[in-house]
Amino acid sequence: MKAKNVIKIAIYIVVVTVISYFAMFGLHIGDRTVIKGVKNINTGLDISGGVTIIYQAEPEEGKEITEEDLKKSVAVIEKRLYAKNIYDYIVRSDVSTNQITVEIPVANSDESQDPLKAVEGLDKTAKVEFRDPDSNVLLSGDDIVSARYSEIATDSTGLRSPHVELTFSDEGAQKFSEATGNLIGKAISIYLDDTCLTSPIVKQQITSNNAIITMGNGDYNEKKASAQEYAMLIDSGALPFTLKVISKEYIGPYIGQKALDVSIKAGIVALILIALIMIVVYRLPGVVSTISLIAYTALTILIIANTNISLTLPGIAGLILSLGMAVDANVIIFERFKEELKQNIGYKRAFERSFKNAMTAIIDGNVTTFTVAILLYIVGVGLIKGFGIILALGVVLSLVTAVLFTKYLLKEFIPLYDKCPYLFGSKKEGKKND
To answer: What percentage of the chain reaches a pLDDT higher than 90?
Structure first.
């Protein structure tokens, strides 16, 4: 084996080691967490416990609450939960009592240990209005297509400035253009639930379909938190009625924690057994497969931890399923390599053909599973969504690590076949020249 092969192998191993270290312990600089590790993973309601809130719908005087109103409210609350990166929620409405029940997991991230933090803002009506100095409504939330958080500088200083970017509909853009044209030199105020967010002076007519809401005074973190909340509330839409909290209940994590402990132990044992079986059956390719599986596990942990996806018990099942698919892909490749060697075409060519010919079956299985996972996420509810998103993530990562990582690392070991085919599970040496 040439020195360059050894160097490349060493680089691969170092990279996997670093990724695994970050997955286990994260990266901390002083009091700041740069990269979150396994301890920072948010767990779902079924593992860590959480909060159950019951809201009572209170209509305006003279109006009645319809089933359609309740459905719209559920949709608005679900959209707000999405914005908070909570996927394993349960939201249900009761037409007979005009109540909405929300169940969400504990917010166990570094930023907050208070489980009630996760429900803040869910019950806000979020009625947006643009008003002139005489309090006449010029535009409303119905004229806004989307709202998103941004930090792009809004003035000549070039400094980051947390704010909300609004995009108007065509009709809304026309109203905004007329309003700013009539209010040059005057203030146009933006209200959220009768609270004035900002009142900028109009300097010129604005004909574009965009506007921004600045956060005024305060430090950077305060303005960032406010801008993110406003963007979430405005983008999710307004509730058709007021929601009053009539009950908040904390749910203990007792059964879920025991199930999590068992799942972790079972996962570790399974990973060790898979590694031993792969090494015994396939020898050196089995070692490469084990390194690939470690990389897959570490990358999965890093992505889940740093995207704040809530991990649930069904989500763990999705991880285990995708881990099995990663092993399955390696088995297909290695078995194909043995078959190609029997064609007496040379080990280098057999190696390339084994990956090329195995890809059809591997991609077929992964695409099918990925499609099902996406459908589960789209049409599923509560814990099913958590299973779908974790399975989809696992399928993508397993395909990348099992195919690309395994291929390029194993390629560096292939020159050893010339001297010791036994390391590759081969009893007979094929041609040395391709």
So the answer is: 14
